[in-house]
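Replying to the earlier thread about multi-chain prediction with a worked example.

Input:
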Amino acid sequence: MTSSWKQQLVQVLLVLVSCGHGDTKTAAPTPTPLPPVTPLKQDAKSAVLTGKNFTERVELSSPVNMTLSCTWKGDQDKPPNITGHWRKDGQEIQDSRVTVMLEDENYKLIQVFSVVSEKDLGNYSCVFGNEARIDFILEVLQMGEKRDKPVVSYIRDFVVMTCKVEENKPIPTTWNWYTSNGTDKEQINTTASKRFKIVSEERETKLKVKDLTLDDAGQYYCGAVYPIGTSVGQVELKVITFMEPLKPFITILIEVVVLVAAILLYERSRAKKDSAEGTQTNAEQNTEPQGDDKGAEGNDSVRQRK
Amino acid sequence: MFYWLRCSNSPDSTVDRPQRDMPKPGDRSGGAGGPDGGWGWVLVAAMFISTSLVFGLMRSLGIFFVEFVHVFDESAQAISWISSIGLAAQQFFSPLGAALCNAYNTRLVVMVGGLLSGLGLILASQATCLVHLYLTMGVISGFGWALVFTPMVATVMANFTRWRALALGLGFSSIGLSSFAFNPLFQLLVETYAWRGALLILGALSLNIVACGALIRPECQPKARAKEDSGSGSPSRSNVLQRAASHLELPLLCERPYLTYTLAVTLFNFGYFVPYFHLVAHSRQAGFSEYQAAFVMSAAGATDILGRVASGWFSDLGHFRLVHLLTLWTVSAGAFIMLLPVSSLSGSYAALVAISLLYGFGSGALTSLVFAVVPMIMGVERVMGGLGLLQLIESSAGLLGTPLSGWLRDVTGNYVASFLVAGSFLLLGSLTLATLPHYCSCTDPPPPPPPQRRSSQGSHQDPFPPTRTTERRDGRRGEVQAAGRQREF
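Result:
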């Protein structure tokens, strides 16, 4: 690890010596390929700081030589040169202090980092003087479509949990699923436990669990394995008994039965009252049944005309 | 004390019906109507709830479909067949529902329909494969919905004369309002109880339709004219068929006004649903963001609700004939559908939103009138069967119209052709409306008298076909009616 830093430092010094003062604004030094057999890809990120702090997130999927360049506009008094250094995860990188010259009202720090494995990821900061700082957070590709609501299912039912990578992002090498075991993550072995089945396509993976029990509830993690590291997504599983929805169901059922009974009973009581009144009036008008019939027929014809 | 709660067929209620001697343009002479108000408004509330539980529920099922795609590992198209089957079942079984109401008790039919639709959803919660969902959510619930929708609409129509369109508009406004309310509710249910529990609870909610059906009092039911029985005891096969045909109101299919109207509504249906399915996609294609496209759809939905109620209220004021107003709304809806791609092609979001608002209003306005005109064509007595047949025939257009527009889009690459064709179908339907008999007169013609009751020979021929009566001049209307009445008594 330290040997690579030393090599980087040597390169920087070489560049400084060969190009002389005030020449750092020209090209970002093209690094020579490092000892690893395959030549790494190149990439570059830059940021301009106007305030005191700035953060930029960089997502990586495979090993790369990352050139980070920071430009600072300085504050009120602009000394002709200040000291700048680099930090990784808050710790100052050894032998990274350099003197930065002021040119075109700007200070500039450029550094190349070789990011090969997961331990090379982290928070890289360039610091001007003692205050101004730009953070580059180098991390594994994050998965899109984070499902923040838990997946719910029932005892003895089956459930499917998915993790997806967005369309324009690179395809992971492989997918893994983990379950949380206390504070640890334990990989799910599909051959050992028959209830679990993992179906993975390029950009999507599904964990199918059947015959659920209450113990299966908890956090599940899907890991997308990239050359640089593993990107982890989280899915929470909740297992409920069938009693849960049954409570509102029975409540609504009771409400419906009560309503229907009330409506029908009300109507029957009203009909009884009407028939009680009706028999009274019928008894009074019993002498003229003919007239009533004719009147009804006349009303019918009036209705028809309309 | 409960005088006002009575319905039409009780002997006392004819006293409070307004007597109108001079026919006005908006005269609702659609046969024996109901006494507006009183228990009728309770029925409107029942129709509100039951329609929202039928169509509002159907429209919000999309939330479950997302879960089904996930869980059953099927394509979105296979899942969308669930709602297609449900809608097709609802429309296909409509005549059957109408016939059952004519033959038996409307209240019983609606309550059974509510039970079936709830049962379908409850059974669907236990599904383990997609076919189960097709059968339960699609067929069983669809059949239940068929037994609910047409009878409720016919009941409300039978209980209103003067305020018929407003009552229908209020009842139909539930569809839009409930789909606004159901979407977040279903989302919450699915997140809390998973789709199984949510379907179970939905089934229980659908059972509320049974309570709505219980509100249909025996005297408020749409009274089809009493079908004359054969008199003899043994039900021969031809006798049963003839009774079934009369319950289904099949003779309606031989009447020109009804056929014309059905054709017009079928043409409407070709174009009516296209914006629902394609507006969002079209907005996205025109370059607007997801939220902008969704907002356009919501805005159209909001004016749709407004249009239903407003057009119902306005047409009941009586200044214009319902048919004329219906033509106005269908022409405007058709024109705005045709303008939709034009406005979005110009790139202006404000223009798209404005045209969508106008289109929403027009389509909502025409929805409440499409049903309100039906009693004009055939008389309130036959409205139950007529509605059922109308639903069945117009369903074909709904099934064909959307794939046609999708095919046009695939062929041409954008939605312009689909919208233009959809709008032109609506305009074509309006032209067809104009061929209804007595279209240009200022007052409604009398509805054709129902065919003569089956004589003992068993012939179905109507010796006085309706077209003859409706072509008489208005001045001689009284004469025709007197002749008709003599025949009947």
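The interface with chain B takes residues 149, 152-154, 157, 159-160, 162, 240, 242, 244-246, 248-249, 252-253, 255-256, 259-260, 263-264, 267, 270, 296, 299, 301-306 of chain A (CB under 8 Å).

Feel free to reuse this layout for your own posts.
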